[in-house]
Amino acid sequence: MDTPERTQIATPLSKFEDSPVFNYINSLSPIKPVKSVHFTQTFSALSFASLPSVFTSPHVSNLKDSRFLRRHQFSDPSKPELNSEDAKKAETNEGNSNATQNPQTDFNSNSVPDTSIVPPNGSSNLESRKLSYESVSPDTINTNKIDNPSSSIVPFVNNHSQNNPMRIESDIEGMDSLHNKEVSGCDWDSLIDASDLLNFDSPSDTIPYKCPGQTTFDPKPEANNDNPSEKNEGRKGVPENPVMLASTSLNNFEVAELADDMDNEVGSNLFRGMRRRCLVFEMMGSRRKHMEDISNVSDSNETVIPNDNSLIPMRTGNGNGNESSRCILPGIGLHLNALASTLVDQKVVKHESSGSGGQLIIAPPSAAYHSIPSGQDLVTTMADAPSLENDQNGVTVTEDVSKALGFVINEELSQGSPRKKRRRMEHAGENEACKRCNCKKSKCLKLYCECFAAGVYCVEPCSCQECFNKPIHEDTVLQTRKQIESRNPLAFAPKVIKTSDSMQEDESSNTPASARHKRGCNCKKSGCLKKYCECFQGGVGCSINCRCEGCKNTFGRKDGSEMDPEMNVVDECEGIGTDGRFQKMAIHHEVDTVSATPATPSRFGRQSISMISSSKGKPPRSFLAIGSSSSQRFGKLNPFKVGVKTDKQLQTVGEDKIPEILEENGSPISGVKSCSPNSKRVSPPHSGLGQRSSRKLILQSIPSFPCLTPNSKP
DNA sequence: GAGTTTGAAACT
DNA sequence: CAGTTTCAAACTC
Ligand SMILES: [Zn+2]
Ligand SMILES: [Zn+2]
Ligand SMILES: [Zn+2]
Ligand SMILES: [Zn+2]
Ligand SMILES: [Zn+2]
Ligand SMILES: [Zn+2]
What we know:
The chain is an all-alpha fold. 64% of the residues lie in helices and 1% in strands. It is built from 35 helices and three strands. A two-stranded antiparallel sheet has the order 1-2. Helix 1 packs across helix 5 and helix 22 (373-390) crosses helix 23. It is globular. The protein binds a DNA duplex through residues 437-442, 446-450, 453, 484, 487-488, 491, 519, 521-526, 530-534, 537, 578-579, 581, 618.
């Protein structure tokens, strides 16, 4: 797969010089810059390949693979649609409470309808995936102009490359973010580590849509199926908008949560407006983004209105999303919370720092996201979420959103690691991709259950029996969770944490993979070479905490000998994964480096490689960071909004922080606060790296379920 | 898909 | 905390 993809990319690049399309596009759109930017954003993930080349060719090759993977992931994201739907619903609800209904129901319902779409995706071929890729991200742009995926790609790429340089110089901060994002985009790992924003951005922009597992390749189908239909039915320009929306909504959701907890005030009115913007954004597309970015102009309302309209249609169009929804359902979970918190922090920081310049400041992040819009998006997101929550209907909506978020998050995570997700498809990927647990006796109320362990409710794809891990039994679920947490506060914490022991810091360096399993493994017969080993499954080397016998962990033996991540990756991707599934965590220390300088290709590559993904779309398990404030969320919103990562990737969490959180977090708020401090660190724009890293930390910390839970517990 | 292996989770 | 049982995933065929 990789190879082919690369090939394609290469082709595009070469083409793009010729790119009649490019010219054509330029001529078409008055706002060239925007477009270019737009492309960039959208493409960023896709076009990455091209970008990297700009920076440095060497990495590119390595990155490409990962990038490709990412794309797939992105494209996969049929989920976004769901999000979009949710968003729509939310809006609709505001106006009318039709859509809403039951959160649970929504969950299920969504999943069901969605299904139809999914199947196609699942079956979709790699090629189709590719196409979807192109079509998906490009959608915005393509919609009108590019009919052919391949052609569209080329133009994008071209623009991207050209634009990028421009943007960077001009935008400065924004650029950084963007730039980073792009870079990071290329490597999910980096995203994860480095910037929350990045993560969000990429995922949200392109990616976030389907189930993690499924997603791998599905995207295209979605894009294809959805886009066309949507275009015709809903808005044209927006074919992909749904995705965008979805992502946005996700973001919003998170934000909203935070906002609620932290500051509702901030957003209410503004946010609402913002939120619409976001939608518009998505809908409108890149254009606006560009505009804003470049000119910094704030836009406003126009967009919003269209969005609404579009949104509605979108919702309808969700059909596509439906499939994703299935997958998504599973995903919803704690992850969301974690992400949300992260986002919130970021947002907060932004606001504070930026003040009037907010937009500009925001822009950078957004850049990562879309370009400028992102800033708005963020805001909007916040606003949206809150509004939703506030509104009773909102509850339902919220759930939906959360779901979407969860997915997104998942995807992000998964993406990060996943280079190899693609594989998951294998045969039935589609259906199974989403599949989750298969519990027979635990009633999905014990950690045996992957869904429960991941902090997410069981969904349709689950094959569990006598399942109590459903929204209907929220009380029971929460209660059980508390009990388990009381016994082991870290029970729902990510299994893999970033070890900062020796290092610190940012950049420093560190050893390559400084992540490790929180408890270590106890393998006796697997040699830590199979997924039986949680360390291996998490894509991390064994540590001193491991009591394994005959450890041969390719990610690193207890002491130290680390193997080449690549090897693992390769193996994982193809070799190990017979199934195709491998999950790895992405641990990045220095995404910055990467983003900032392509210079460290090798390192970068390795790191990025470090993560891998799993094949199937199973719930993330504990590896993933789960929703942090589950307790609150559970109480307030949905218990399991947790996002599920697609795979089981592990999330790295800052060890230091985790403990703190656990201890401190008496309440979700506290958790947030803790985050905020981090965010502050991050806030310093100038130090792109630093911020990212800090953000990363935040995320990590947040993710841990424990944070929230701890609160509940004495 | 059924059956086996495996190591974590749960229990004692 | 260790030993045992239970459990569902990972793996094998
Ligand atoms: Zn279960
Ligand atoms: Zn389940
Ligand atoms: Zn279940
Ligand atoms: Zn092991
Ligand atoms: Zn180990
Ligand atoms: Zn080991």
